[in-house]
Fold each of these.
Amino acid sequence: YWFRWLSVQGAPRLALRLHARRGDPFAELMGGPRGVADPYPLIERLRGEGRLIRTPIAWATFDHELCRSILRDNRFGVRTTESFDIPGPMQKLAKHSPLPPNPVEPPSMLVIDPPEHTRMRKPVASAFTPRAIGRLRDRVETVTAELLEALPAGGSADLITAFAAQVPIAIISEMLGFPDSDKERFLQWGDRMTPLLDVGISWRAHRRALRAMEVMNDYLDTHIRRLRRSPGDDIFSALVTAGELDEFELKASASLLMGAGFETTVNLIGNGVVQLLEHPEQLARLRAEPELWPNAVEEVLRFDSPVQTTARTAVCDVEIAGTRVRAGDTVVLSLAGANRDPAVFPEPDRFDVGRANAKEHLSFSSGVHVCLGASLARMEGVYALQALFDRFPDLALDGPPRRRELFTLHGYEQLPVRLGQRA
Ligand code: HEM
């Protein structure tokens, strides 16, 4: 653990800390309290520095057009352990301490390039067809209704644990054939492993994440054995029996789907609740024009992106925005910054559920890694938010919401609410 932390996290952590102390806005955005609480003023400062800027650990852009074109450019790839100006010998050290299959290391499709990426993504993508998602619609509706029924009408609750996290975890658990009783474990593993998406995390957070990986690995071994003996009609049983992916690849895919399936959608729902409560005139508009709900969800995704950044590494020397980016250099792509780019979204800091081009946000990324679960996430977001506000029209905050201390994933860990009266 120690070696690995030092090689992939320690160096960027030191750089970010030193620069944050000197007031560098990028270092604060990626590793300071302001980056968690309200990243947007920092993003605007950085946007003012240019379309492509040099930061203490990498290049970075906050520009919609540039983010989109880099995501779709095959001269850029995703090689995370070789990113962020980590010295070569340190990268080698990390490779000598292999980890159990997990969402953020190869062969997880998230962090590999074509052609391997295509081979890993194809069998999983076949489970996410519009027909398959359509079949899940009834389940999302039922799960949402059951959860709302269980909330103490007239009382108080933490909306994240009691609702926002429960909708996506229930659906992804079913898709992966996991028993309902194991949901709490997944929530715990997700909580421990998501800091790995950030750059320069602490030694303690890193150790907790790697331990969770090991426990999850054992769990998935047993789960795959069970599905081989008696497959269900879930998508993971189909993947296991199809035989296109080996054991290690199956576990990497399952862990990615599990994390991606709920750690992001919980933020969409939570961020949506907060935005709508902070903009009552927008909520009133949705009551008058409920057909706007799908667009409102796009606007929540744009306005407060659940995934704030991703990164790409140049595979050869590339000239972009008049700057030469060398092979091996990493560019941090601020999806949240792209979503507030005034060149694409007029008055970008205004939350407007009727915004005509809200759907042009990059919250689901773009190019070959575009989010596989986007239509599922959209469906969950629309059902969950609309049903919640229909059922509790007087929903109100019951104390300040608390943000998760993460930079890449952006959402709340606590959202205390009063549940108004029944509709
Ligand atoms: C990839 C966002 C929900 C599965 C991604 C990426 C983003 C993203 C930004 C690409 C990262 C990159 O380009 O480096 C989101 C958001 C969600 C969401 C904001 C919810 C609001 C889901 C759900 C699932 C899912 C519900 C599955 C059930 C995946 C997978 C990938 C992915 C498998 C990897 C695709 C690849 O690398 O080819 N997501 N996601 N996501 N997402 Fe999502």
Note: The longest helix spans residues 203-229.
Amino acid sequence: MARKPLIAGNWKMNLNHLEAIALVQKIAFSLPEKYYAKVDVAVLPPFTDIRSVQTLVDGDKLLLTYGAQDLSPYDSGAYTGEVSGAMLAKLGCTYVVVGHSERREYHGETDELVNKKVRAALKHGLSPILCVGEKLDVREAGNHIEHTTSQLLAALKGLKAEQVANVVVAYEPVWAIGTGRVATPADAEEVCAALRSALSDKYGAELAQGMRILYGGSVKSSNVADLVKCDNVDGALVGGASLDGEEFTKLCALA
Ligand code: G3P
């Protein structure tokens, strides 16, 4: 089954709303309209920029999509500092990142919480970009497949197959994030294929074949083409390289 690739730029905690507008304009005017028929492009700005991105995308009828980097597991109420899936949906978000290794590491997010956030995203019609990935010691011990598969299945626990179909999976080995040390295409393919096979065993081959599995970790215009050539890599979750309009559009064009 042909899967439409997705290139998503995770801006992390970078760019204010004025800088966000400038970057989105640069991306939008550098990629021809016909490009979007082949590849989906998304930006994932900080919460404070999303309203500005929405205004620009709606006003100029841009084909670019956008989303957030996190959401609350709760719908509303006394949860100071949290942003709900309902709020993100109202802002026109298509995606929301869930379970990024930086949230797991710096905010103590467990598989159980990631599962609640995946449910919250789906409940509000958002596609979770569910991140899984091993640290270096796990890879060196040869346990990366077991580790990432277990993160994946834990995050999807209790969901029905039709819900799982709306999830985008992102394999982001922690040792490759922000380090300049990209996984080889063979490394990325090995894990992405194993994740697809786990999805197939649990939810059926047809569903697994239709799901997008991205690679993330030091993706740049110089390495993206070889990564997305892999059978089971359906695009990229890009950090640092998504902050530079020229580099990001070059990367998109090469994907
Ligand atoms: O979510 C994207 C990510 O963690 C990879 O970051 O800077 O290595 O591309 P980077």
Note: Strands lie at 6-10, 40-44, 65-68, 95-98, 127-132, 168-171, 213-216, 235-238.
Amino acid sequence: TPPIMPMAIRFDHEQLTLAPAGPTLTRRMSDLEGLFRDEAARAAAAAGENPVVYTVTSSPVPEANRELPQSITTIMPGTTSGEFWMTKGHQHPDHQGEIYLAITGRGGILMFDGEQTSWLEMLPGTIGYIPPGWAHRSVNTGTEPYAFLAVYPGGAGHDYDWVVEHGMGKRAFRGPDGSALLRPFAE
Ligand code: S6P
Ligand code: ZN
């Protein structure tokens, strides 16, 4: 493959798209087996309307060592038995760090290093820093789509099994006043 040349990528704030764009990934309820507290409710939703929970649009920068790719994640608003809609969550196998920039809507980053849990509230303009070794899951805590830019080392990778094995420490539910309420992962 030819070397990547310097490039400008246009970000459309309204459409939440990149041009030029790389691959786009769509995750529906059927792709999120075993991740919500109420798996029966998740399975029922997957068997029914099977809604899109989030999309990830990448730039053309490849996920390869020494490159610095970026993507836009858009999580739809919603809850499953009170648990806010969220990404699968993953750990980077070699523990690289990552940054997120919140663009629209409201959300949070739930992080877990195997012992401690961290929660960062994300509002448009917030830069969230994910330090090395912290698994990360994004959550839409609002009533509109929540979108953010992620910038990460090209060799970072995605270890989804780590989250299945270790959990995320906590879960984000909609509290009585509509804001996020963190509860123990297995409660
Ligand atoms: C990649 C970065 C994001 C996520 C995306 C979807 O390092 O953290 O682009 O991949 O937000 O989340 P997930 O957990 O399904 O990959
Ligand atoms: Zn990541």
Note: The domain at 10-184 is CATH 2.60.120.10 (Jelly Rolls).
